[in-house]
Amino acid sequence: MQKKTLLAVMTALVIGLAIVYLLWGRQARRSTEATGGEATAAAKGDSPSGQASRITERPGSAPLDGGLAVSTVAAAAIEGEVQFTGVAAPAGKLHREADPYCARHPMADPTVLVANGKLANVWVHVVKGAPEAAAPAAAVELDQQDCMYAPRVMTAVVGQKIVVRNDDPVLHNVHAYLGASTLFNKSMPNEKATHIEYVTAESGVIKWKCDVHPWMRGYLGVSRNAFQAVTGADGLFRIANLPPGRYTLEAWHEKFGAKMLEVTAPARIVFAYDGTEH
After folding, report:
1. Which of 110, 185, 189, 226 makes an SS bond possible with 133, Cβ 3.0 to 4.6 Å?
2. DSSP code of 191?
3. Contacts of residue 90, Cβ cutoff 8 Å, sequence gap at least 6
4. Residue 8: its pLDDT value, please?
5. What is the per-residue pLDDT for 43?
6. Domain encompassing residue 49
7. Segments of the chain assigned E as strands
8. Is 21 in the same domain as 107?
9. 32 lies in the same domain as 87
10. What is the gyration radius of the CA atoms in the chain, in angstroms?
11. 105 and 90 both lie in a single domain
């Protein structure tokens, strides 16, 4: 009888030890999986909770826990300035006396605008390395105000619409050239004239002139990508949202022509003109 009791106790003890061992093994495996998950998250830049350290929404993709997705490569910018290292002559007066209305508004020649050694109205754009872009839905607007084209220099993407307005109560005609070829030549009798609309078809510089008022000039830089800018009065520019990488940039000025630089984005660069170009 004592032997049977002892055997039953020993059997129960073995079974108990086996159960404890199984439970311990399961807990150890869970701990190992959790530790491995944290290491993977850290390598990806994620926190153990599933929240990304740098995140962005990606419509159409499968989100992580919490509806967030890991970000792609951050966008870069190319910024800088266009310097004028020569001696800039004072802007001369435009002779507009032939038209009484235009003569009411004296104007200086805006061809070369330099302030604090920086050059305005320079078109800076990526000519190599950037993907082509669809034309923006919004139109580029060109005004004729006080017998001048405004703005002096603009940008567009191939396929983008251009809308030209006449805000003056006098006759202007918009003669547009791409290189030596006429794109269109349309008159606008006064401020009540129907707007001119034109859709850009090629890259390059479109030049506007008015055959009635020969001092009226304007320029539109047309690119196949969206990475472009025009220097302001401070001579500065900034091209944003570029993928990091290698690019060829061109700076173009109506009098001094074009200069090119190879850059790796992100970057801060300087173009320089000394006034002897062209």
Report:
1. 226
2. T
3. none
4. 56
5. 33
6. 2-70
7. 55-56, 69-70, 76-84, 114-115, 118-119, 123-128, 140-145, 148-150, 153-157, 161-166, 172-178, 181-188, 196-199, 204-209, 217-223, 228-230, 236-242, 245-253, 257-265, 267-273
8. no
9. no
10. 34
11. yes
* Cα–Cα distance measured from residue 245 to residue 138, given in angstroms and rounded to the nearest whole number: 29
DSSP, collapsed to helix, strand or coil, labels residue 85 as: coil
Task: Say if residue 65 is exposed, middle or buried (CB neighbours under 10 Å; 0-12, 13-18, 19+).
Answer: exposed
Residue after which a domain boundary falls, among 70, 101, 125? 70
Q: What domain count does the chain have?
A: 2
Helix (H, G, I), strand (E, B) or coil at 41: helix
The whole-number pLDDT of residue 12 equals 56
Tokens in use for 20? 């404890």
Pairing of strands 217-223, 153-157: parallel
> What is the model's pLDDT at position 18?
53
Q: How far apart are CA 276 and CA 2, in angstroms?
A: 117
pTM over 0.85: no
Provide the residue type at 79 as one letter.
E
Tokens of 116: 């604090």
List Cα–Cα distances, 223 to 21, 29, 84, in angstroms: 72, 59, 25
Residue showing tokens 């966008």? 75
Q: What is the mean pLDDT of each run of 10 residues along the chain (278 residues)?
A: 51 54 50 37 33 28 34 78 94 95 96 97 97 96 98 98 98 97 97 97 97 97 98 97 96 98 96 93
Q: What share of the chain is helix, strand, coil (3-state, %, to 5)?
A: 15, 40, 40
